[in-house]
Amino acid sequence: TKETHLAHVVVMTSETLFVEKLYNHSRLAETSDFYLIGHLDFKQVQEWLKYEGIEDKEIVNLIWEYVGGSAHRINDAIRIVKKGDSLEHYLLDEAKIYRGKLSHFIAKTLKNTESRKKFRIILKKLVQDGFVIRNNDDDLETEVLDLAIEYEFLFLNPREEKIVFNSQIIRKGAELLIKG
Fold this sequence. Notes:
The protein is mostly helical and 180 residues long. The protein contains nine helices and three strands, in the order αααααααβαββα. α4 (57-67) runs parallel beside α6. The protein is flat, with a radius of gyration of 19 Å.
């Protein structure tokens, strides 16, 4: 307000490094609330698919396994199902695209062998555990994670310092990459 020099500020972005720096490296963490508007949960996805006439449990589970709660990807999957095309083929192709994007990121963006090894270790841990917590004492890990977040392969929740895949399809791509 004008008299007390207070303001209401809303910041909306998918750039999680920006949010993390803004939230944790300023006084916002002490004075503000952080609200994460993320992907849909399983029940919401089920309800949406049911509304669209898709109730086959195999199809619902396949969509959840590959795209999770990502609204635009669910919409794409609905379109594929309604067209009568192979959903499994489409989703596997999408996962292969992300395997390629991750492979390209490793080869072209990560500058040295140590960075590439570190990122592969991080990918394995993410696939196995579903998340990693940044080790701020490990400069190489922080650098590699920050790059992967910047390229939007990973998502950082600034409140929890928890890092996860940015979407389920990226996770599936990482699984394919790890398998070789």
